[in-house]
Amino acid sequence: MPPSSVAVAQVLVRVRACGVCSTDLHLAEGELPPRRSRMVPGHEVEGEVVHSVTVPAASGPAPASASHG
Fold first, then answer.
1. Does position 49 have pLDDT exceeding 70, yes or no?
2. Cβ of 2: how many Cβ atoms within 10 Å?
3. 18 and 44 Cβ atoms separated by less than 8 Å
C-alpha cells in the first residue's frame, strides 16, 4: 500500500508477526463455519508504524463559545 493512500488519523503498519488464536485455527481447519466469506485469520498483530497522517491543527480565531482560562 502506498503511503499516499493513508487517510488523516490513520497509520500504515509494516506487520512483523501475526498471531492466530485457537478459533482461527478451527476456522482454517474447517471445524467451524466461517461467519463471513473470505475471512482472513489472525488478529494479534505486531509491527512498526511506517507512515502516519496526523490531524492538522486548527488555524484562525477561536470559536466564540471557546473558554479561555
1. yes
2. 7
3. yes
**Average confidence (pLDDT) over 14-42:** 84
**Residue 22: which of 42, 45, 46, 47 has the closest Cα?**
42
Q: How far apart are the first and last CA of the chain?
A: 44
E strands in the chain? 10-19, 44-53
Evaluate whether 20 touches 42 at the Cβ level (below 8 Å). Answer: yes
Burial of 49 (0-12, 13-18, 19+ CB in 10 A): exposed
Q: Can you give the pLDDT at residue 4?
A: 76
Predicted TM-score (pTM) of this structure: 0.49
